[in-house]
Amino acid sequence: MKPIRLKQTYELLQSYKLFENPNVIISDPTPASKEDLLTFHSHDYINAIEVFNDGNWSQNASNFNLGPGDNPVYKKIFDASRLSTGGSIVAAKMIESGKVNRAFNISGGLHHAMPNYAYGFCVFNDPVIAINQFLQKGLKVAYIDIDCHHGDGVQLAFYDTDAVLTISIHESGQYLFPGTGWVEELGTGKGKGYSVNLPLHPYSSAEIIVWAFKQTVLQLINKYNPDILVTQLGIDSHFNDPITHLNQTAQGFESILKEFAKLPYPWLAMGGGGYDAMAVARCWSIAFSVMSEQTISNKIPVDYFDKYGVDNLYDIQIPNIDSDYEASTKSYAENSVREIHKLIFPTFGIR
Ligand SMILES: [Zn+2]
Q1: Residue 59 pLDDT more than 80?
Q2: Element (DSSP H or E) covering residue 217
Q3: CB-proximal residues (5 Å) to ion ligand 1
């Protein structure tokens, strides 16, 4: 999660000259206000993060799941977290005001942060806080999370409302943090049927991931017919990722992005996980090119190649999976899709 991966993404976008298009605006983030943060997080938690801004942590930090491990306290933790959250708020406001119809905050997508504690490298939950901006205007939001991990914090925030449809596609919680994200977690009360989870087996191929997406997500978004599309584009699903086990490719990621781009809704995208820095830079450059309707060539520009040694935007060598194993990843995906059809689709009157 070191910010260098964002810098390397930004540099690749610059090398491809994707910012030079007259339709592209680069906006500086402004720090999220306490008022914004309070739309999801508790007063005590926000104040604690502010106290830890000097980098010192006490026994108290463990009350907020901070300290050694996934969620270290570091100098300027409050400033940095407010800024990355603020990026998603600026993006949401630009969309809501009609200034732009698509926006991408690569530093956002911190979907695990909980109301009272940090979780899974996430301090403040910018997807929830940005979605709250839209809800305050009475808008209806579809949130699609394609990070390898379950989007648990966002699901929790909107579990009992039909004003937000949350859909998370991820490696099964049986094998990966945070251990949740089962099809049966489908929402409560008014929100019943509006929380959708599509778990996949480790080593599921790009083909299977895209197939499962097309069997479920598109129908649900179309029926829900939101005012705004919000996507979390974590690319820790990539086969090179060191901490997860799905076998997504840059090509598979692009085909999902192209499906989002066909939808008629204003679109706010955020980054998320991704721990192979070059996979992050390549895939989020692809995302940006799709969102801004610019073509991008497979050949990485020479200045970037000279610096980082990566020569192709798309994946050339894709891992081979034993055919028996592949069959079991397929039947796992088919089962998840079937369960969604059975448990969720009737809510939307599909089929
Ligand atoms: Zn992740």
Answers
A1: no
A2: helix 206-224
A3: 147-149, 234, 236, 273
Would you place residue 328 in the very low, low, confident or very high pLDDT band (cuts 50, 70, 90)? very high
| pLDDT value at 1 more than 90 | no
Gap between the Cα atoms of 349 and 346, Å rounded: 5
Ligand 1 center from residue 17 Cα (angstroms): 28
- Tell me which of 3.90.1300.10, 1.10.10.10, 3.40.800.20, 3.30.110.70 is the CATH number of domain 4-25+99-348: 3.40.800.20
Positive or negative: CA dihedral 215, 157, 40, 64: negative
Q: Which helix (H) or strand (E) holds 197?
A: strand 195-200
Active site positions, annotated: 112
| E strand or H helix that includes residue 232 | strand 228-232
**Residue 129: how many CA atoms within 13 Å on its side-chain side?**
36
Stated pTM of the model: 0.98
What is the C-alpha separation between 149 and 26, in angstroms, rounded? 29
